[in-house]
Amino acid sequence: METRPLEGRKGPAPRELPPAVGLLLSMALMNVLLYLCLDRLVTTPRGPAVQPGRCPPGHFSMGQATTCSPWLSCEQLRTEVRPLKRVGEGAVKTVFLSEWKERKVALSRLTRPEVRDDFLHGLRMLQALQSEHVVTLLGYCEDDDTILTEYHPLGSLGNLEATLNLAKYRSLNTWQHRLQLALGYVAILDFLHRSPLGTLVMCDSSDLPKTLSQYLLTANFSIVLNDLDALPLVNHSSGALVKCGHRELHGDFVAPEQLWPFGEDMPFQDDLMPAYDEKSDIWKIPDVSSFLLGHVEGSDMVRFHLFDIHKACKSQVPAERPTAQAVLDTYQKVLNLLRDTATSQSREML
Q1: What is the 3-state secondary structure (H, E, C) of 149-209?
Q2: Rounded to an integer, what distance in angstroms lies between the CA atom of residue 277 and that of residue 283?
Q3: Which structural domains are found in the chain, ordered by start?
Q4: For tag attachment on the chain, is the N or C end more exposed, with fewer CB atoms within 10 Å?
């Protein structure tokens, strides 16, 4: 019996694509491949890549941004920045919490025309000293006397105790974190004393509250210098020293060489007041660090290990005081030592 193929089980014969459709599909595929290849070779122009903590001169980055953007211009400040409320006012500038592209920023405006030189000096310092130690400059407009900087909601360093009392930050209220803050403060002084511009003195530091107000506490619990209006330059080679202001200073917080040396019987005269150098900043380190260390468990042990370097900072003779770099090195050694000790004790308890 002759068998025949079961034609009923076969599906319909596949239809061939018209030549024109095939050609179009081939061309589309080639265009896709060409686009992908070109995309790897030619990238869209972007800002410079962010290096850890810094951008090229004239640029900034905020938060988790992976590229740097140019400082905002006058036109951008006028049209893109929206002031929300005043959050601070000093002798030189008034600060407004503002919004730029849905981000919170700090807009500073000149308080009064008589202090415009100080305002512009602060701007020049901000431009020249951009680093991990200084608040980020986002833009400025000299025509309008405005400066835009990154906003830090925790505010000035003077708010430290109130911040650490918040439930969100109580876990950071330890000697380790507090010593890190003190180390950060000394690192800023070391940066100023060896800055790209030369040796700068932190003059807005006539008392502890005033000193603390010059620094901001960041969200990751580090310190940045915020107020750069009074940073005179010392030049040891030429013998050029500084005087912080033109009025008489008082109290134990300022260095002895900053006090009027001719007694109460002789009225203060600015032109007779001797000048001094950056060692006046060193004198104040123990007092600022004592505030930062607070009175938590372990802080007295930290103070004990820092006793010798702090004693040297309080030398009546400025030249005998250590440099900020020497103090910073000591702080780092003490932090490492106490961390290692704490780690060893924890292992012994296991």
Answers
A1: EECCCCCEHHHHHHHHCCHHHHHHCCHHHHHHHHHHHHHHHHHHHCECCEEECCCCCCCHH
A2: 11
A3: 69-150 (3.30.200.20), 155-341 (1.10.510.10)
A4: N
Predicted confidence at residue 65, as pLDDT, reads 76
| Cβ density class 299-333: b for 16+ within 10 Å, e for less | beebeebbeebbebbebeebeebbebebbbebbee
**Three-class SS state of 89:** strand
pLDDT band at 66 (very low <50, low <70, confident <90, very high): confident
CA-wise closest residue to 283 among 241, 328, 253: 253
Instruction: Evaluate whether 122 touches 92 at the Cβ level (below 8 Å).
Output: yes
Average pLDDT estimate for 218-241:
95
In angstroms and rounded to an integer, the radius of gyration of the C-alpha atoms of the chain is 31
- Encoded tokens for 134: 């200084």
**16 band by pLDDT with thresholds 50, 70 and 90:** low
pTM of structure: 0.83
DSSP 3-state of 236:
coil
* Spatial contact of 100 and 148, defined as CB atoms under 8 Å apart: yes
Q: Quick one: how far is CA 278 from the chain centroid? A: 21
- Residues with Cβ < 8 Å from 195, sequence gap 6 or more? 128, 129
C-alpha distances in Å from residue 276, one per residue of 250, 280, 289: 16, 7, 23
Spatial distance between the Cα atoms of 216 and 227, rounded to a whole number of angstroms: 9
**Helix axis angle, 279-293 relative to 175-193, nearest 10°?**
160
pLDDT tens track for 129-154? 999 999 999 999 999 999 999 999 99
Residues whose CB is less than 8 angstroms from the CB of residue 225 and which lie 6 or more positions away in sequence, other chains included:
133, 134, 135, 188, 192, 214, 215, 216
